[in-house]
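Researcher: Dear colleague, please comment on this protein.
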Amino acid sequence: MDTASPFLIALIRGINRFSDWTGRVVSWFVLAIVMITFVVVVMRYVFNTGSVFMQESILYFHNYVIMLGAGYALLKGAHVRVDIFYRPASDKKKAWVDLFGFLFLLVPTCTFIFYIAWDYVAASWSIMEGSQEAGGVDARYLFKTSILLMPALVLLQGFAEALKSVLTLTGHQGLAKQLEDHDEEHAL
């Protein structure tokens, strides 16, 4: 029987649930994109009118799907890997690759993105930046905030994935696999 820290297991499950919830919420934005796009097309070609607000809102929703869904994609294993080498590897080799990737690729990259974006987003919030277009969405600061949320969400889920790798490397493969299978049960 796998015996690992109940706190560690609860932490991994909590992060996984949060990433899953985030992914489920932003997945509804895709429906909003389709519906708003339909309305914009009908307005343009049937009524010969347009809406800058609606067109910009499509960009906002599209941005949120990509930026806020990145942690969910990591949870579901949807990010790009060199599967030709990764797939046939043993569980321990995969765990080493995942742990190395988290520590030496994901953490530095997300930290760098967060660091360089901080002043940019803070400046936008300081003036409550709005749209550059008349009648547009007057919340550009919310749009830009996703630049900070994306690396935070990816780092959070990456931390959970790294902890699963540690479980595998410390002989708790069954528990790590159970945590993976639990994630699959709650897939969209």
Observations:
- Residues 6-45 form the longest helix (40 residues).
- The chain is about 80% helix and 0% strand.
- Residues 6-186 form one domain.
